[in-house]
Amino acid sequence: MSSSKSGSGRVSVLIALCVVILGSFGVHYGMQGLCDGSDPMRDYFIQSFAPQLGNSLIVFTLLWWFGWPMVQKHVAERKKTIEKEIDESCRQKEAASAAAKEAASKIADLDHEKRDMAKNYELATHQECRRIRTEAEKNAERLVVEGNVSFEHQANVARRAFEGEVMAKSIERAREDIAKKIANDPALRDALIERSIDSFELGRGLP
Fold it and tell me: Contact at 8 Å (CB) between 25 and 50?
């Protein structure tokens, strides 16, 4: 509807321009006989102004009729291009904003994950330290027990060896004392011999 009104309006303007152009050239060619030099203003209007006006209106009419639609088309295309660029800019801005939000969210997630990893590492470190300390205490206790047992065993062995050595020396000393007493006392020697014989006979008489 608006395009039909615009077309009818353009035709009306074109008709008006054609009428003015024809009138200008009509004045120029139809009133040449009046130019006798008595009125310079009238002669200028008829001989110069009227044809110049007609020529200017022809150029304007051609430009307006053929050039203006092209200008409008170019302006409309340029408007569409600008609107498309604006829409694309808005879309890119929204995409950039979304990417920035996503990046901020990922950074926040990374920070949270880093804090969690630090906490887990600290907890694992404490647990490992406790485990190592517990194992060290157990090993120390085991070594102490083993050391005590080994010490007691070595002490018992040394004590038994000492006791055996003392006993052997005591027996050897007793033998030497007895030998000396027997050598110095014949009666004691005879008594010991008799006691030995009696013990031997007593042993034979047992069933």
Answer: yes
